[in-house]
Amino acid sequence: MLVDYQAVAIKLYKHLKTKYDKSHVPNIQILLSLLVQFFLPHIQMHELSIALGILRVAEVEAKKANAKSIERIELEIGTLAGIEFEALDFVWPSAVKGTILEHSKREINIINGEAQCVDCETIFGLDNHYDSCPKCKSNFKSILKGKELRVKSLEVS
Ligand SMILES: [Zn+2]
After folding, report:
1. What distance in angstroms lies between residue 131's CA and the mean position of ligand 1's atoms?
2. DSSP β-ladder status, 123-125 and 105-111
3. I need a surface site. Which of 24, 39, 126, 152 has the fewest CB within 10 A?
4. How would you class 126 by CB atoms within 10 Å of its CB: exposed for 0-12, middle for 13-18, buried for 19 or more?
5. What distance in angstroms lies between residue 109's CA and the mean position of ligand 1's atoms?
6. 127-144 confidence digits (pLDDT tens)
7. Residue 44: exposed, middle, or buried by beta-carbon count in 10 A (0-12, 13-18, 19+)?
8. What CATH architecture applies to the domain 44-156?
9. pLDDT tens digits, residue range 44-88?
10. 77 CA to middle of ligand 1, Å?
11. Which pLDDT score is estimated for 49?
């Protein structure tokens, strides 16, 4: 089983920030700034590159439509796509700053994982890639839903 270091790190960061941001204890401030400068940029590279990928798609589409700005962007992201939603929220503002998406309303449709057992053909909800069939316990399945990562629609003006 995988330990979700990224989620743990984000929770730790948020906890420290709310608790100590206004603190006048110098060591805590140093610790917090170290965490932000060295730790977070690395663990969120994945979501940052995803945000930049989304931005690229939006820019190409906006250009095609001759749009000056994008009012709304609708995304579809599956729970099995390997994206940490909190991390994506966290990197989003810096990824889109100064771009066509800076003031866009962002909507995310979360698509829950679904798989079909290869052995007994049962269709079941899949929370993790390694889950087995609830009916026959087989590990062989084909994933039907949950790996999506796409820009579903854009509202331009
Ligand atoms: Zn089965």
Report:
1. 11
2. unpaired
3. 24
4. buried
5. 28
6. 999 999 999 999 999 999
7. buried
8. 2-Layer Sandwich (3.30)
9. 778 888 999 999 999 999 999 999 889 999 999 999 998 988 889
10. 26
11. 87
